[in-house]
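Slide 14.
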Amino acid sequence: MTMPTLSQMGHVLAIRAERESCIQRGPLSNIWLVRSWLLTFAVQMATIYVPFLNPIFLTLPLTLNQLGLSLILSTIVVFAVEFEKWIRRRG
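Slide 15: predicted structure.
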């Protein structure tokens, strides 16, 4: 469930503007959104890596490779949204 959570978090950052790229807009243009994203990421990592939370949320710690793969694959959503915005700006 880590990859879908991270994908949705990236999606939120990518859809802040309908046509403008998140790179053009700047990652820190909305400090509250960034803080919310960081808090959500911290809670997600806590549910995975804090031992007493594992039985509550039925999670197991990910290996470094698994976490890295989740982070990389979750960016597909961001790239897809940014590609769609690029097509809209061109057309």
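Speaker note: Residues 2-90 form one domain.
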